């Protein structure tokens, strides 16, 4: 496997994860069956990223919004750029 292929794999993995986080946020605005195959897949992939952030980021009682997807997206972007720069 060449350097270019490794770069693409890492880049695609991060992009897919960020895309799934955005899809999860959009899904949260609509009623859905959490046991559906696609929904379960999205939650299974994104929950390991979002869960630790939820424990760190307090949710204000006056504003019941989950900011963990925003923070996760930003952290994934920073991590992706740093990792790709270190690799290449």
From TrEMBL:
InterPro entries: CCB3/YggT
GO CC annotation: membrane
UniProt similarity note: Belongs to the YggT family.
Protein name: YggT family protein
Organism: Heliomicrobium gestii (Heliobacterium gestii)
């Amino acid at each position: 496997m060449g350097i270019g292929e490794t770069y693409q794999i890492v880049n695609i993995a991060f992009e897919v994860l960020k895309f799934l986080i955005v899809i999860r946020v959009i899904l949260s605005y609509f009623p859905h069956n959490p046991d559906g195959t696609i929904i379960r897949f999205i939650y299974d992939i994104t929950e390991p990223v979002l869960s630790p952030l939820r424990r760190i980021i307090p949710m204000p009682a006056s504003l019941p919004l989950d900011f963990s997807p925003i923070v996760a997206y930003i952290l994934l972007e920073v991590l992706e750029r740093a990792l790709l720069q270190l690799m290449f």
